[in-house]
Amino acid sequence: MGFRLLVIDDEKNIREGLAESLAGDGYDIVCAENGDEGWKIFSGGDIDLVITDLKMPGFSGEEIMRRILSREPGFPVIILTGHGTIEQAVNAMRDGAWDFLSKPVDLDHLSLKVKRALENRELYFKHRRMEEELERRNQFKSIIGNSRNMRDVFNTIKKAAPTKASILVTGESGVGKELVADAIHELSPRKDMPLIKVHCAALSASLLESELFGHEKGAFTGALARRKGRFELASGGTLFLDEIGEIDQNIQIKLLRVLQEKKFERVGGEQTVESDVRIIAATNKDLKTEIEKGNFREDLYFRLNVVTINVPPLRERKDDIPLLAAAFMKEFAQENGKTISNINEKARSRLYAYEWPGNIRELRNCIESAVVMCQSSVITMDDLPPALRDASDEGWIRIRQGLSMEECEKIIIQETLSSCKGNKTKTADILGIGRKTLLRKLGEYEE
Taking the CA of residue 246 as centre, how many other CA atoms within 13 Å lie in the half-sphere pointing to its CB? Predict the structure, then answer.
């Protein structure tokens, strides 16, 4: 289906010239000679992008833009500005305009701007549909993602959740391992029973033992009464053991027995307690390496690791960044009483380029900071935390608009070869082409 564009300008020659040029690009063009008429046309619906002059009789371009964005946040509006109104145009950008162009308009430049804005709009709606679909299904609660890596995680959760098998969730700090545990429990037959969580790294060995298995009165100084442990409290439900790689060897032995026999004794007690608990453990450590070092029992590892779910780091699922950022933006905008509808192109590009060593936890913190700092309806680069604003663009290849495919290919090959320090085999592997093909192209560039 073709796109329908609305051009608003009180100067007939400019209006008709823009319409003719854009129609040549295959767009359906509707024109208005002032802001009032333009608003009526837009209100009638079926408009995909608006190009408007800044100063006009009746509604100004700024007023048109504000009205449009209040009705449809993120809608692409391109502002046309004459001499002396650049500052106003910049302000309009801050308020949510997609871009602005100075008169006389470079038609080729406008064509590229329109194409890019419409692609962004399509991407925006694609992400909206993804979000709505994820909300509709609501199978994984707070887990947001539609990348191939996360679809693999979802499939494993759906298969393993209905069973009684112990599950080991692995992944770097901040990737959302606890959310995976929540989803497993919610999709299991135990969902109406307790889900008890224990952060193993937060407690000393003695405290962790009491926390897990409980204690009898007088078992140690301060034990004034019998106390049930997490295994008893979670009976019939699920016990989530976060950072399992941090637990003491002695507790590992006791934990192994519970997994094998479903029985244990409270600290300082002799009575055997039975508990039917489904175990989900999580770690950011490589437990196989910990086994080799003598820090983790191999038999316990195999008991815990009946099913493994590896949650990928954010740098390996960058397709999910727009979804995650949109969800966090909505959450924190509501929390702070702000109306923020979008993240502009430069800020989105920086979110995508950044490597996110702190994973989703860092992204969430970044968006919260940006929402707090944002003074308009659109988050810009200036709103991002300094760590992101100052991040290096190393590893990215920038290509100027308007180059041919052959010129783009040449830049990509030469830049990749340079980053590989002249190693042609490595360069060919990275680019996914044969070494002979690479050598042939490099030879062509030298002719």
Answer: 16
Single out the residue of 62, 64, 12, 4 nearest to residue 33, CA to CA: 12
Q: Give me the tens of pLDDT residue by residue for the chain, a chain 447 residues long.
A: 478 999 999 999 999 999 999 999 889 999 999 999 999 999 888 899 999 998 888 888 888 888 988 888 778 999 888 765 667 767 777 778 888 888 888 898 899 889 888 888 777 776 666 555 555 445 565 788 888 889 899 999 999 999 999 999 999 999 999 999 999 999 999 999 999 999 999 888 888 999 999 998 888 888 888 889 999 999 999 999 999 999 999 999 999 999 999 999 999 988 899 889 999 999 999 999 999 999 999 999 999 999 999 999 998 888 888 889 988 999 999 999 999 988 987 888 788 878 899 999 999 999 999 999 999 999 999 999 998 887 655 556 666 666 677 778 888 888 788 777 788 888 887 787 888 888 888 888 765
**Tokens encoding 331:** 């959450």
Helix axis angle, 345-353 relative to 321-335, nearest 10°?
120
Matching residue, tokens 């919610």: 186
Residue burial 201-215, b: 16+ Cβ < 10 Å; e: rest? eebeeeebbbbbbbb
Provide the CB-side half-sphere exposure for 367 (13 A, CA): 29
The C-alpha atoms of residue 419 and residue 427 are separated, in whole angstroms, by: 9
Nearest CA-CA partner of 67 in 35, 22, 101: 35
| Dist CA 319 CA 357 (whole Å) | 16
C-alpha to C-alpha distance for 91 and 107, rounded to whole angstroms: 23
Q: How far is CA 56 from CA 41, 101, 352, in A?
A: 16, 16, 38
pTM of this prediction exceeds 0.70: no
DSSP lists the bridge partners of residue 272 as 265
Q: What's the token pair of residue 99?
A: 């871009």
- Chain Cα centroid distance, residue 245: 27
> Tokens 């053991």 appear where?
241
Distance CA 354, CA 104 (A): 37
Asked if residues 369 and 325 have their Cβ atoms less than 8 Å apart, the reply is: no
Tell me how crowded residue 122 is: count the other CB atoms within 10 A of its CB: 12
Reading the block at residue 440, the tokens are 């042939």
